[in-house]
Amino acid sequence: MRKFSNWVTGIASILVLSIFGGIAFSFTLLPFAVLFNSATTGLNEAIAGDDIEAASINLSHISTLYANDGTTKLANFYTQNRIVVPMDKISQHMKDAIVAHEDRRFYQHNGIDLTGLIRAALTTFVFKSDQMQGGSGITQQYVKNLLINQKIQQDDPIGAYKAQEPTIFRKLREASQAMELEQKLTKDEILNGYLNIAPFGPNLYGVETAARRYFSVNAKDLNIVQAATIAAITKNPTSYDPTQHPQAATVQRDTVLDQMFSNGYITQAERDEAQAQKMEDILKLSDVPIGCQTAKGAAFFCDYIRNVVLNNPVFGENEDVRRKVLYTGGLNIVSTLDSKIQNLAEEEVFNRIPATDPSGVATAIVTIEPGTGKIKAMAQNREFDPAGDQEPGHTAINYAVDQTHGGSQGFSIASSFKPFILADWLLKGNSLNALINGTSRSFKATEWVCNQSAATWKPQNAGNANNFSMTVLKAVQISTNIPFLEMATKLGLCSIFKTAAQIGFKNAIKGQEDVTDESQMYASALLGTINASPLNIAESYATFASGGIHCDAIAIEKITTYTGEEVRVPEANCQRVLPEDVADAVTYALSTVITAPGALANGQGIEGHDAAVKTGTANDNQHLWAIGYTRQYCTAIWAGNPYWDMPLNNMTINGIFKYAWFGADLPIPMWHNYMTLIHEDLKNEPFAEVDPKFMVPGKWGKFPVIKPTPKPKPEPSPEPSKESPSPSPSLSPSPSPSNTVPDPDPSLTTPETNPVTPDPDPSIPTE
């Protein structure tokens, strides 16, 4: 480097004399000497700069997201929209146009066009032009762009500015580094690098990206007029953008064509023919992908993957590092998404409830593969829009996932929590045919083993119906409340929530995921007042479908870099959390929700396939659920208002009016239709037989049988499609502050989220 520094110091002398020579006579010799010394003092430090060789192999590359087939492209992630291509994939016209326009002596000099450099210095520093003049040859411009790119990757905006600031020291540094680079690379390698890194429009980098954007062709197919148009843009990528400033772009294009002719790259006839073409006639625009919006219906899944990368330590020690990996690392991300299943999910949500339906009701679908945790589909009846919900039917919030991963604070899962109670019941050695008291009564605080309620609580069944003793299996089929609360008094809150957490259940609110925390283990949470995401509920129920094996939901199959190196990805961490016979017994119980007469989803199964399902209807019919599975797929469907807990009563949804909407009315038909379609080409994988020990009448295990209550007499059973909604999470809090959930952190609440609500006042009857 020293010999280059000495050489450039000589150049500095010439430049300083050129700049100041014309006015030196008005100064004394001493001030001139001071000025000259100022120009050369510290020059070695300025010239040293950064390691250009390292920067040249670390260009900011686009990361691409694919479906699970590895070929269906969903979206791109980038800070600089760039597609790198080799020299033989760039047309000769494009190479000629750039050389003619940017550095006609490129193949003759050793990295510095001294004539152009002096001209630029005079124009900028003496005559004070408003704009920094070029003067830099292609090699110097390549150096500048490499340094800018390197500083961007290092999250160093000050360094990026210094790499292009209008100072003589920056020019001298570029000159030194350009000469150094010319000793390491051939002219063609330098030209190829420049053509891949230079800006050719707002957020368009490299000629391949520009060719696709402006003319819908590859760089190797660019003709004379197209190449000249692109070459002209780089002088001012915004002002000469042909899509925004066609007249200015035409003037600059014609200048490039003149330069190509004068340098012998094209004939006069070719120039004249090219200049005669109107800009609007030659442009054939293609949309430039902008993040997840290009994934269309899969945009919310794409956004989920973005959040997975930004939040998972496997991709880097902090979010800044992970962001750099995603947006500049040139990753090829093969996701778990099945395009066929995804398309069916999108059709289902939009056909069932249009995005701009006057009801404002939203719906979301998530499908997971049991035993692997792979997310196969994720859709909702809204258009993905990073700007939020400024337009009807648009949102940036992913209703299917938790708050950490770009979702809301989740939704009350209502009776969908009951299978977790059932799992703990069976785990403790109890029977599905145990007889349970279903009569509405008051529950005392002392009955809740672990984290007792603050006062007596008298919940009810829906419409105060089904007030009679029944088997646990019957309680599952008609989803009545009191029997599950009776079971819970024998199991204890800690036991139930520990089992639920092991199965996979989590709170959707960031920082409150652990449902075994005492602040969340309150009595009404047994009936689903804790908010969860559709993805988490699908992940949890998939544990039953796989025979007790829980797998973390995963969205990424494989990642490789642009060089082919494989990158570590998050694992599913599959492990047994329930005995197989317990999981199979839960599955058997949920399968009868489809097959038993009078059950909530009777007749809504999947023809030719063993299936199980559970509905959920929050208090006042605020949120509706259907979660069900086969051995192959587990699907969760939610419907409700995403902004607030709005009762779905006396409402018309997609042209259909009902006095009250239940889980069996909306999500269950969606689940039935969608699951039938995605199983059309699959063979049935039968469920295991339930262990006879779970079917013993009366009791099995340590808990006594609860005898039927003779009075009052059983009331007529309501319509079979109406399950017991969960108690309202919006009632007044318990008077005891020690047993209530604190108000949510205002910073966690957004217009499209549901706040955490305290345990309802046990003294107030619930519906």
Number of strands: 20
User: Describe the biggest sheet?
Assistant: 5 strands, mixed
Structural class, by secondary structure, is alpha+beta
Class of the domain at 80-282, according to the CATH hierarchy? Mainly Alpha
What characteristic shape results from the CA principal axes?
elongated
Looking at the structure, the CATH topology of the domain at 80-282 is Penicillin binding protein transpeptidase fold
Short description:
The chain has 767 residues and is of the alpha+beta class.
Labels describing this entry:
disordered C terminus; Penicillin binding protein transpeptidase fold; 20 strands; five-stranded antiparallel sheet; alpha+beta; 25 helices; elongated; 767 residues; disordered N terminus; 37% helix; five-stranded mixed sheet
Structural commentary:
The protein has 767 residues and is an alpha+beta fold. The chain contains 25 helices and 20 strands. It has a five-stranded mixed sheet. A hairpin with a 6-residue loop joins strand 1 and strand 2 (73-77). Helix 1 packs across helix 6 and helix 7 (138-153) crosses helix 10 (187-197). It is elongated, with a radius of gyration of 34 Å. The protein starts with a helix and ends in an 89-residue tail after the last helix.
Which helices and strands occur, and which strands form pairs?
Layout lengths: L1 H20 L7 H12 L2 H6 L3 H5 L6 E4 L6 E5 L14 H11 L11 H13 L11 H16 L3 H6 L5 H17 L2 H11 L9 H9 L8 H10 L12 H17 L5 H8 L3 H4 L16 H13 L7 H10 L3 E4 L3 H14 L9 E8 L4 E7 L2 E2 L9 E2 L15 E2 L5 H10 L7 E2 L33 E2 H7 L2 H11 L1 H11 L27 E2 L1 H12 L3 E2 L5 E5 L5 E2 L7 E2 L3 H16 L16 E6 L5 E7 L4 E7 L8 E5 L2 E5 L6 H12 L89
Parallel strand pairs: 1-3, 6-7
Antiparallel strand pairs: 1-2, 3-13, 4-5, 4-18, 8-11, 9-10, 12-15, 13-14, 16-17, 17-18, 19-20
Helix pairs in contact: 1-2, 1-6, 1-9, 5-12, 5-13, 7-9, 7-10, 12-13, 13-14, 16-17, 18-25, 19-21, 19-22, 19-24, 20-24
